[in-house]
Amino acid sequence: MTTLIPAIVVEGFISSGKSTFVHQLLQEKKRYALIFDSDVLPQTILYGFEDAKVLREDVAIEMMGGSCVCCTLDVQNIESDVLTRFKENEPSPFDYIIFVSNSFESSFLAELLSCIDEGPLATLATKINLLNIVCLLDCASALVNLKSTQLLNERFKSEFEDVCIVSPDSHTHDGACCHPSTTSTSTNNNTVVGHQPNQTASQFLSVPLTPAALAASNSSLAGSNTSLSGSRKKTVCCPDQGEVNCCQNLQRQQQQAAAAAAANDNSNKESSSDKLVKKGDKPVSSLVFDQLTCASIIILNKIDLVEEDEVEFLSSLVKLINPNVKVLKTELAKVNVISELFGEPSMSVSNYQPVEKKMSGVFITHFYQRVPFHPERLFKFIFADAQAKKINSKTLSSILYLNGFIWLATDMKMNYSFEVNAGYELFTYGNQFYSTMSENEWPIDPAVKESIDRDIKLFKYQDRKSEISIVGVESKSMTQAKFIEQLSKCLLTEQELSLGPNQWESTFINPFIAILPKEDDEDQEEEEEEEETTQN
């Protein structure tokens, strides 16, 4: 029986340290296949290794004496540079396979690997055991990103489309081109475009590598404008600015991009950047939360750049929104025990722990109640306009993230799932209460079964409860204390509680019924999602 290769997906927002993380892994002298979901490999990968051998310009290299390969998520690269290394009746050519996600994606790669059924990537998917989604969080910019009102499409454009346009024959008399102040344009066919990120931001967000890797990177990038953050395309400089044949390289990249765009047009597919910009009408914080919630391991990176209390706050935040996640703390994305990344994810039973913390205007709290909600009061708390399903901005405008399960007094059989993420809200069916099920329908994990049994025996209404994780930004009009106070007023009063479940169901009206998805709608949505994933 063939042994599957341990694999992980690495994700993280801009400047989180994904490229630095890759450099650190490669110091372990293991045989890696590293596959990047990008058009070209990051500069720190392309030019960060002295022994790197170019397999295909900008998109595929091998290093470490040929034992490691880095390439982009492209059919040709996976076929030629990864799959061809597998030989029948021979041991696997790789110890680990690592997929590195685009900075503007969360679970896309993991979902793709789980459902793709044809082509080279599908073949590779049959050879791996995808163990974890590893998310890197930049401690130095996390709270800024969470509080940011900037939309993802605006951030995308500021990172990738702040460009200078230069022509190979437009050098000034001092030989300078690709200069940050260059504003001239050209309409001739020789014009090339160089991406020019904001220099101050690049310098602030870039993270030095280990001394050895840093020296290697510096020797290749000396004199260039390239920052060591691999999450954005960099400015290229002219020969007399420190990099050889930059304009020719840039022309080649532009021609490759044009060819790829033409191919995509022919097959009626949008470019990846078009898709990212198109769906980017959500705040930056929504993507950060998506990345954190889908991860099984979260690396709090750059802990040396912030105070210890901020690291602890971020640790509490990620555990609040993703209770079963493993949290690692690193400087320079250095994980001391690599095996931690490739271990089987474990399911833990999280008993209620009160959480109530604040940092730089951001608050986190865990709302826990074994008293049911009055459905009408809760509905008015969430919606300002019941007919239009318009969110109540007075109560929820300060909420960045809210997620959990709610017990409504009108339903003793199941709870309801309630989610708010940066303006997006969803109220839908949750899970059946275990106390209404037979024991053979409970989860098989002994620790989980013990927890369920304890709840059922210990509390009056057994395992019925509401648990909501909340992350918000305080303002003069809405503080953490005020939000919790208003939410608590939606619970049954002592007098209402004394009526009992039968009276609750017959007396109270549940307005959520009108907005809950019908089964036919859910099936149709699932089919549409599956069809869209297949087309992509």
Automatic annotation (TrEMBL):
Biased composition (Basic and acidic residues): 267-278
InterPro entries: CobW/HypB/UreG_nucleotide-bd, P-loop_NTPase, Zn_Chap_cDPG_Synth
Acidic residues bias locations: 519-536
Sequence ranges assigned to domain CobW/HypB/UreG nucleotide-binding in this UniProt record: 6-157, 279-328
Region feature Disordered, mapped onto this chain: 258-278, 517-536
Signal peptide: none
Pfam families documented for this protein: cobW
PANTHER family registered for this protein in UniProt: COBW C-TERMINAL DOMAIN-CONTAINING PROTEIN, COBW DOMAIN-CONTAINING PROTEIN DDB_G0274527
Name listed for the protein in its UniProt record: CobW/HypB/UreG nucleotide-binding domain-containing protein
The species this protein was found in: Heterostelium pallidum (strain ATCC 26659 / Pp 5 / PN500)
